[in-house]
Amino acid sequence: MKFKTTLILLVVFLALLAFILLFNVKDVGKEKPGDKLVDLSSKDIERIVFKTGEETVTFKREGEDEWLISEPIEAKADKYEVDRIANDFSSLGIDRVVEEEPSDLEKYGIPKEEISLYFKGKEEPIKILVGMENPLDQKFFAKREDETRVVLISSSHKTLFEKKLFDFREKSIFKFDTDNVMGIKLRSGDIQWEAEKKEKEWFLRTPVESLAENSDITSLLSSLSDLKAKEFVSEAKTDEESKKFMLDAPANTITLQMPLENQEVTFFIQKVEDKVYATTSLSTKIIEAEDTILSKLEKDPREMREKQVADFYTWEVNKVFVESGDLSLTVIKDDEDKWHFDSAEKEEADKDKIDEFIRKIEALQAEGFIDPPLDLKEYGLDPPEAKVTVWVKEDEDKSNKISVLIGKKLKDDVEQENTKKAESEKTGTEAKDKEKTGEELKADAKEEAEKAEDAAMKKKLVVVKNARLDYLFKVDAGFLDQIPKKLEDWKKTAEIDT
């Protein structure tokens, strides 16, 4: 066994030695600094013919920035991949010259791949013939068809030579700018919702009217714009093919309105067994896509509601107004980041307390919603029990005003929620409870009730309203302790009379 292994290693060594003798005896040394096989501008390339193995792909420039595949099919090309060919081979550096006047190109494997570059204003293309890898350094033997010398070029081109027609195709079935979408209608099984964009915000219109969480909408739009083909199953879809892949009446349809482009497009997506197929109302192709898109479509619209009561950053606030009971005060931030009472004296206020209060308002998150129709008096909001208004600086001359109205606490609501939670947890442990004695079960029930009561006492909810929205938020009432009860609460500690 050892003799056989030694013999194999000897054969490999002799083969490598033969390559060294073959390719280095005639080696004329390294190229001159900056020497290139091709040195032209990629912007002047009008057409590229890429031949590897038995496959030949022809690319044609469309306008200044886009590429089309003209042969063996007509399709959009992946701009990044074709630009890579154009950039790499229009300015192709030489690692070193192997032989100036080769008598036999076959020993270098030339030609194994061919890249023909058709430049603007030139009648004949520049054709680069690429051979096999040099076993010593994995670089590639190459030559220009109109030159005699054989050179070595970078091994970084290897991944390009391994690509097939599919790799050069544009795989998105409908690429669009997500910022141009102003409306969405989605149906996914039993889930249906509509949303529209106003300025930079998304609003749900059905099944509930509410400000939507922008990240949920933009994530869905990005996924649709980037929906790529794993495989093209139809190049020119027909009614029969649509039925074959169940895209004539799919489970998922998403219609996007883009008024600025005077365009509307509908995505049709259907899962058949373990594969997901997709097309659009503007596409002639049917693709197989990744199934990750389905999770974006199946999200409950109520979970997409914006839970933040007021969207701003504390450091951007330059004015605060608080009205609570008999108290009405305003503080303003100066250019030195100090707070002052809005009075004739411009008395300095306690920066730490005010910033902490603003952070509490910024952090208000809904734990539930109350939707119209509403009786604001019922919730202590007509008039509100307190009101907080912040001015958020947008630029040098403009500030955005945000008002939060504060209503009644909802103690009973919290207790009910905690009781439901306790009952749910108790149900989940029934199997274990069957093994316990009656006394043990009573003790457990008492402990769970005490936990629910403690939680209800610790956590109270209060109703608040963003003045510009028609619905209400249920939020943790903990921030109420931060509302000043008198002007002195926000005075600097050292200035309070003792």
Please provide a written account of the structure.
Helix content is 23%, strand content 33%. By secondary structure, it is of the alpha+beta class. Helix 8 packs antiparallel against helix 10 (438-458). It is elongated. Strands 5-4-3-2-8-9-10-11-7 form a nine-stranded antiparallel sheet, with helices on one face. A nine-stranded antiparallel sheet has the order 15-14-13-12-17-18-19-20-16, with helices on one face. The protein has an eight-stranded antiparallel sheet with strand order 23-22-21-25-26-27-28-24. The model is unreliable at 19-31 and 426-432 (pLDDT under 50). The longest helix has 23 residues, at 2-24. A hairpin with a 4-residue loop joins strand 17 (252-258) and strand 18 (263-272). The N and C termini lie far apart (98 Å). It folds into three domains: 20-168, Immunoglobulin-like; 178-300, no CATH class; 314-410 and 460-493, Immunoglobulin-like (Sandwich). It contains ten helices and 28 strands.
Question: What is the CATH topology descriptor of the largest domain?
Answer: Immunoglobulin-like
| General form | elongated
Fraction of helical residues: 10-25%
**Total number of domains:** 3
Can you tell me the CATH architecture of the largest domain? Sandwich
By DSSP, the count of extended strands is 28
Strand content: 25-35%
First-to-last CA distance: 98 Å
Structural class: alpha+beta
Q: Helix segment count?
A: 10
Calculate the mean pLDDT score and round it: 87
Oligomerization status of the protein chains: single chain
* Alpha-carbon Rg, integer: 35 Å
Q: For the record, what CATH class of the largest domain applies?
A: Mainly Beta
Q: How is the main sheet built?
A: 9 strands, antiparallel
Identify the strand order in the major beta sheet.
Answer: 5-4-3-2-8-9-10-11-7
Low-confidence stretches: 19-31, 426-432
